[in-house]
Amino acid sequence: MHLAAEDLISALRQSSLRITKARRAICDVLATSHEEHMSAVDIRDRARKRAKVGIDQSTVYRTLDVLEDLGYLHHVHLGHGAGVYHLTEESDHQHLVCERCGRSVEIPLDELEPVLATVTSRYGFVAQGVHFALVGLCEPCSARSNEESMNDPGE
Q1: CB environment 37-73: b (16+ within 10 A), e (fewer)
Q2: Could you give the number of structural domains in the chain?
Q3: Beta carbons of 44 and 82 less than 8 angstroms apart
Q4: How do residues 125-137 score in pLDDT, each as one tens digit?
Q5: Within 13 Å, how many C-alpha atoms sit on residue 48's CB side?
Q6: Count of C-beta atoms within a 10 Å radius of residue 80
Q7: Which of 13, 43, 65, 103 is the Cys-Cys partner for 98 at CB 3.0 to 4.6 Å?
Q8: Do 82 and 98 lie in a common domain?
Q9: Are both 107 and 69 inside the same structural domain?
Q10: CB-based contacts of 144-152 (< 8 A; 24+ apart in sequence)
Q11: Extended beta strands in the chain, E state
């Protein structure tokens, strides 16, 4: 079951934010884009088209910040460029991003707990959150890279 725009609007209301046409449009964009990772600018542009009104970027950020604080959104950096947002109905997760094809995979954070525990015990560093993605090569791109290096006559 996906979150609906009205669920997000109710959350904003409970956080004492005024529900404007702009905020309704922002919630609608988020609710109809469950699988997408969008920048705040992308969200603003789509919301402007839906609402047919001007929307200040600060309104977008304020709305996204509240929804993130309430646990409805994840904000993550998937490599180079602006951070992106997406709705989440699941627990925290980490993103793996292929630097060649751009494919993004979400993995449960508990799969990384042994690694994070090792970092903490060895270095005393306690990692928090999943704000940055792990960047590398996905399986198909990695396989292609291996094939290309095997077929390169210069090696």
Answers
A1: bbebebbbebbbebbeeebeeebbeebbebbeeeebb
A2: 2
A3: no
A4: 987 666 677 788 9
A5: 12
A6: 7
A7: 103
A8: no
A9: no
A10: 145/100
A11: 73-76, 84-87, 93-98, 104-108, 134-136
65 and 125 part of one domain: no
Structural domain that includes position 67: 1-89
Q: Could you please report the per-residue DSSP string of 78-121?
A: -SSSS-EEEE--SS-EEEEEETTT--EEEEEGGGTHHHHHHHHH
71 and 132 fall within a common domain: no
For residue 120, the domain's CATH number is 3.30.1490.190
Q: Is the pLDDT of residue 154 over 60?
A: no
Q: Are residues 68 and 97 in the same domain?
A: no
Tokens 């705040």 belong to 40
- Burial pattern 122-145, b for ≥16 Cβ within 10 A else e, equals eeeeeeeebeebeeebbeebeeee
Give the tens place of pLDDT for each residue, 22-39: 999 999 999 998 778 899
